[in-house]
Amino acid sequence: VKRRKRLQKGTGKGKEVSERSTGRNSKSAKKSPLRETVEWIVVIEIAVIFAVLINKFILVNAIIPSASMETTIMTGDRIFGNRLAYRDMGPKRGDIVIFKFPDDESQLFIKRVIGLPGETVELKDGVVYIDGRAIDEPYIKDTPTGDYGPVTVPGDSYFMLGDNRDHSADSRFWTNTFVHRDKILGKAFVRYFPFDAISLIE
């Protein structure tokens, strides 16, 4: 009987030691304020690097400063362009693209592709003719006016027009009329601001 009591007492002490040691481990598991701060800094740096890489290689961000593309895109809209859209093929007629302004490449412009490489573009009474045939433009805001051309688009270049045709500074008025393919940064595909007007761009 005495031996059993001693064994029970020993087991109780062993239990107390075990519980105390567990308490020490839980205290040591807590992170110090310095360590938490360093971890947050690393997370933020990774997020910034990730955002920079996306903006450089996948998306191009643009803010619309004028009414030249209304009503497709409004003044003040913010949009994303897809940098990968033309990796394997060139722009198509009707695409809305973001590109470096040929007269000042420090500026980004957004217009609609109208004339493709090798085509002859002409405007008569506001109507666009490609190689002598009028094209359908359902995206035009108002009935445009004026004549232009004819001009032939060089290889690997494009003729650009705004949708708000009578209020757009585009290929008709630039010193360097055409946009070379390697100056096109991406195809506009989504409006993300204002938030109540988020939509795909066509």
The protein's oligomeric status is single chain
- Structural class per helix/strand content? alpha+beta
The number of distinct helices, counting runs of at least 4 residues, comes to: 2
The low-pLDDT segments are 1-28
> What kind of sheet is the major sheet?
8 strands, antiparallel
Distance between the termini: 91 Å
Strand content: 25-35%
SSE string, helices as H and strands as E: HHEEEEEEEEEEEE
Blueprint of the fold:
Blueprint lengths: L1 H28 L3 H25 L1 E5 L14 E5 L13 E5 L7 E8 L4 E5 L2 E4 L2 E2 L13 E5 L4 E5 L17 E2 L3 E10 L5 E2 L2
Antiparallel strand pairs: 1-2, 2-11, 3-4, 3-11, 4-9, 5-6, 5-8, 6-7, 9-10, 11-12
What does this structure look like?
This protein is an alpha+beta fold and 202 residues long. It is 26% helix and 29% strand. The chain is built from two helices and twelve strands; from the N terminus they run ααββββββββββββ. It has helices at residues 2-29, 33-57, and strands spanning 59-63, 78-82, 96-100, 108-115, 120-124, 127-130, 133-134, 148-152, 157-161, 179-180, 184-193, 199-200. Strands 1, 2, 3, 4, 9, 10, 11 and 12 form an eight-stranded antiparallel beta sheet that branches. A four-stranded antiparallel beta sheet has the order 7-6-5-8, with no helix packed on it. A hairpin with a 7-residue loop joins strand 3 (96-100) and strand 4 (108-115). The model is unreliable at 1-28 (pLDDT under 50).
